[in-house]
Amino acid sequence: MTPPTALSSHAPPAAAGSPTLPAGRRPAGLRLAGAVLVTLASAALGWTGGFAGLVAVLGAGLLLPRLMRGDDAGPVAAALDEPRVSGGRVGAEVMVCQVVPVWGKQLEITRAAANDGLGQLLEGFTQLTGTLDQVEQSLDRFQPTLHGDSLGPAMDTAHGPLAALLAPSTRAFAQRDAAVAELARCADATGELRQLARQAREVGKHTRLVAFNASIEANRAGQGAEAGALAVAHETRMLADRMAGIGEQVDKLVSRLESTLSAERLRSEFSDTTADELRLELQLRAREALQSLVGALGGAMGGTGELQAASQQLRAQLDELFVHFQFGDRLNQMLAIVGTDMQNFARWVGANPYATQSDAAEWLANLETSYTMEEQRSQHHGNVHIDRGSEIEFF
Amino acid sequence: MSKTVMIVDDSGSFRTVVKLALQKAGYGVVEAVDGKDAVGKLNGQKLNLIVCDVNMPHMDGLSFLRHLKTTSAYKFTPVIMLTTESQESKKAEGRAAGARAWITKPFQPSTLVDAVGKLCV
Q1: Contact across the interface for B108 and A329, Cβ inside 8 Å
Q2: What is the pLDDT of residue B60?
Q3: Among A109, A258, A387, B19, which lies 20 to 30 A Cα-Cα from A349?
Q4: Which residue of A has its CA nearest to B95?
Q5: Do A122 and B104 touch (CB under 8 A)?
Q6: Can you tell me whether residue A296 is helix, strand or coil?
Q7: What is the extent of the structural domain holding A375?
Q8: Omega before A27 cis (within 30°)?
Q9: Which residues of chain A carry a pLDDT beneath 50?
Q10: Residue B30 in contact with residue B47, Cβ under 8 Å?
Q11: ipTM score above 0.95
Q12: What is the pLDDT of residue B42?
């Protein structure tokens, strides 16, 4: 925004025709200088009191009224009460034309410094905003991962790792099943062993019968063959006894083996926890582990939410800072206007050393038309209340 | 494809503030330093909206707005005036020239973004 300045927007009151002031009368131009500078400086200070650049304007506000009042005992007041002529100029005119441009330069330097400061401030805000954008984008990308509120999809997603987790136990179950099958086959083989034991007992009985018959036949055959036949019968009886004993032992062993290996007993031992139940239990354990993991992720999600809230709060604070920054920018613009007006005013006073009240009124009127802010208009009339109304108006 | 907004303001810092706010909201931004510069940058390019200051050197915002309304390619492009001016007479001038909204500085960036969202074609 570069509003027109007071003197650039209209022709200054003509010097010719301005009435000559009587001796001892204070020039109206100085009254005007004080009024203008105080008005503009007050308008600027109303926003950012203490702003260093306004020292020059304050100086103008303090010194010029004293010049106008003429109640100062210093040399300037003396010059006002009794205008001196220097190089063809009236004393007060000399003061205005020489001092005001210096203030104007100081004002310009201050404005430039403020402008640089605002620029750097804005650059910092820009970088901060950029960083904040990156943080928010990262949070947005992270958020969908954490929104899985159902375990089902997570289980589906983790199907591969879960299968790998179950693989060793699955292999163990298969080996156990194979072992059970082998044991069952062993149990079946015991039936054959029992059959053999029965046959051995039968053989023992027949052998014992044969030995008995042999001993009878030996008694019949006579004394000579009796001893040999009796010996054979004795040996045969012993074999029959041993055969019967072996059969009984085999039978006992088979019974013990059967009781150990019987399919019913094997099944009953493993029926408490079947392979399917163990698989299910493992899956449940895996699900619990996954739930724990999701719970941890949920905690992280909560932390992310807090981070997002903080990010939004920071964003709002940045917006507020941008608003305050705009005030600084406006102050910078107003300083530029004041500086230009001061220079124009000094030139005008140089050309019109004996300005009138109507010149001052015209100056002030033109100043007012050049204002672009309510603050300027308000301070111009000494009314500090500013009604900004609505920030936005749609047509 | 993002919508494009032209910012016309002689204050570089204000242009930056506006640009940041609009880019954050997903808009593309074209900058001009005053009305004359803006006229030179029109070039028939597609503009969905223009945000314009009032008091600027070379060509002020209202003059630029009036020029815009005589240009067939941009006569229907919505214009938001963004200015320190809050006088009703100035607002009336803006309304008569064809502005669609008047935002008084200082403003909340969110206010501008909302207005752009409502008026952007």
Answers
A1: no
A2: 93
A3: A109
A4: A395
A5: no
A6: helix
A7: 28-147+330-380
A8: no
A9: 3-81, 146, 148
A10: yes
A11: no
A12: 92
Strand A89-90 and strand A85-86: the pairing is antiparallel
Type of residue at A255: S
Q: Is B77 on the interface with A (CB under 8 A)?
A: no
| Chain A CA closest to residue B58 | A2
> Residue B43: what pLDDT?
85
Closest CA–CA distance from residue A161 to any residue of chain B (Å) = 41
Task: Give this prediction's pTM.
Answer: 0.54
Question: A286 and A359: one domain?
Answer: no
**Among B52, B6, B2, CA closest to B29:** B6
B31/B43 Cα distance (integer angstroms): 13
In a domain, A188, yes or no: yes
For the record, the structure tokens of A93 come out as: 């005119």
| Diameter of chain A measured on Cα atoms | 196
Q: Which residues pair with B80 in a beta bridge?
A: B51, B101
Q: What pLDDT, in 10s, does the model give residues A35-66? A: 444 444 444 444 444 344 444 444 444 444 44
pLDDT at residue A90, rounded to an integer: 67
Between positions 27 and 56 of B, the ones with CB within 8 A of A are 53-56
H or E element in which residue B49 lies = strand B49-52
Q: With a cut of 50, list the residues of chain B below it in pLDDT.
A: none
Could you give the number of structural domains in chain A?
A: 2
Determine contact: B23 vs chain A, CB below 8 A: no
Q: Which residue has the tokens 């900058």?
A: B31
Residue A231: the pLDDT is 80
Q: Does B84 touch chain A if contact means CB atoms closer than 8 Å?
A: yes
What is the C-alpha to C-alpha distance for residues A294 and A390, in angstroms, rounded to an integer? Answer: 49
Same domain, yes or no: A40 and A74:
yes
Single out the residue of A253, A307, A264, A274 nearest to residue A140, CA to CA: A307
- Partner residue facing A388 (CB), from B86, B99, B108: B86
Predicted local confidence at residue B70, as pLDDT: 94
Say yes or no: A143 and A166 in one domain. no
Domain ranges of chain B: 4-119
Q: Does B101 touch chain A (CB under 8 A)?
A: yes
Residues B103, A326: C-beta atoms closer than 8 Å? no
Q: Could you tell me how many CB contacts below 8 A there are between chain A and chain B?
A: 93
State the residue for tokens 């009042």: A69
Q: What is the CATH number of the domain that holds A235?
A: 1.10.287.950
Residues B4-119, CATH architecture: 3-Layer(aba) Sandwich (3.40)
- Mapped onto helix, strand or coil, the DSSP state of residue A8 is coil
Q: Going edge to edge, which strands form the sheet with B101-104?
A: A392-394, B101-104, B79-83, B49-52, B4-8, B28-32
Which of B11, B13, B101 is facing A392, going by the closest CB pair? B101
Whether A224 and A136 map to the same domain: the answer is no
Tell me the sheet residues that pair with B70.
none
CB atoms B84 and A325 under 8 Å: no
Distance from CA of B61 to the nearest CA of A (A): 10
Q: Which residues of A touch B54 (CB under 8 A)?
A: 1, 372
For position A379, what pLDDT does the model report? 76
Identify whether residues A165 and A126 lie together within a single domain: no
Task: For residues A41 and A138, state if they share a domain.
Answer: yes
